[in-house]
């Protein structure tokens, strides 16, 4: 499940036994670079299965960091460069000046699970997860290894001091706490930014607006607001938690329930989305 193959040769490649997405112009050695990448202490890495709310979360991250106007469309080439395995050869070296307080960070994204991603206890990892039924109806034709194994590998790191686990469902239900949680993953500097005023361009730490950055991010990155943006809406389906019930058959639902029991029983994952996955 979650490994169906369609136009495999055109859109995907196998690297070291992994089925990987193949963006235009990105060669095998870029994926190998991702697999071999050794995180540095100032790295902030988001690990997620495809269609788990990646674009949404990255938009929030960049809004917090001040790299984009809040809720702004991220051009495709810039979005792709955030992913370790999507970079072109001349983009593989990406240094960042670290300030004296060591508060600057460098953000990366990856679809590698924690099983394959190099681990540095000094770096920080954001583990983004989504329930299997909603993810299935959104990305069932995107092979990226076994979903259940990937999620289990993230779950096993949930109590690591340098790992922050967050779910799509949590972000939908409680955006304020989720945004603060994401800022905490980036660092205390970015938590402070959340409570600063925005300037008129939508960036934080300005003084030309009564808007607090946190409030503006909540407002502008709500699913409804982003879906209404012509440039952004292509990245979103419906975004409704539990929408699988309108699409999936009972047999399909039962099959996923069985996989959950078989793969996750005894880990705590089998009850994480109990309400969201109930028929």
TrEMBL record:
Pfam families xrefs: Sulfotransfer_1 (PF00685)
Residues of the Sulfotransferase domain: 141-265
Q: What keywords tag this UniProt record? A: Transferase
Q: Which InterPro entries match?
A: P-loop_NTPase (IPR027417), Sulfotransferase_dom (IPR000863)
Q: Does the keyword Transferase apply?
A: yes
Q: Report which superkingdom the organism of origin falls in.
A: Eukaryota
| SUPFAM superfamilies the UniProt entry points to | P-loop containing nucleoside triphosphate hydrolases (SSF52540)
The answer to keyword Transferase applying to this record is yes
What molecular functions are annotated in GO for this chain? sulfotransferase activity
What family is reported? Answer: Belongs to the sulfotransferase 1 family.
Q: What is the protein named?
A: Sulfotransferase domain-containing protein
């Amino acid at each position: 499940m979650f490994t169906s193959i369609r136009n495999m040769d055109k859109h995907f490649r196998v690297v070291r036994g992994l089925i990987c997405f193949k963006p235009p112009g990105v060669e095998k050695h870029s994926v190998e670079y991702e697999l071999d990448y050794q995180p540095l202490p100032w790295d902030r890495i988001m690990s997620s299965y495809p269609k788990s709310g990646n674009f949404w979360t990255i938009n929030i991250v960049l809004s917090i960091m001040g790299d984009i106007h809040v809720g702004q469309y991220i051009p495709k080439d810039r979005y792709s460069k955030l992913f370790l395995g999507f970079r072109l050869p001349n983009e593989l070296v990406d240094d960042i000046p670290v300030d004296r307080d060591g508060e600057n960070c460098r953000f990366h994204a990856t679809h590698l699970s924690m099983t394959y991603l190099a681990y540095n206890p000094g770096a920080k990892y954001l583990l983004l997860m989504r329930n299997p039924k909603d993810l299935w109806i959104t990305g069932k034709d995107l092979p990226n290894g076994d979903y259940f194994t990937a999620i289990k590998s993230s779950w096993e790191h949930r109590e690591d001091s340098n790992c922050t686990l967050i779910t799509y469902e949590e972000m939908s239900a409680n955006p304020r706490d989720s945004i603060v949680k994401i800022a905490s993953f980036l660092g205390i500097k970015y938590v402070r930014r959340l409570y600063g005023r925005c300037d008129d361009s939508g960036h934080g730490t300005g003084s030309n607006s009564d808007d607090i950055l946190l409030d503006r991010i909540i407002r502008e990155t709500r699913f409804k607001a982003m879906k209404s943006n012509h440039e952004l809406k292509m990245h979103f389906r419906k975004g409704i938690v539990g929408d699988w019930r309108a699409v999936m058959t009972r047999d399909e639902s039962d099959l996923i329930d069985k996989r959950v029991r078989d793969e996750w029983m005894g880990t705590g994952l089998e009850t994480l989305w109990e309400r969201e996955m109930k028929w």
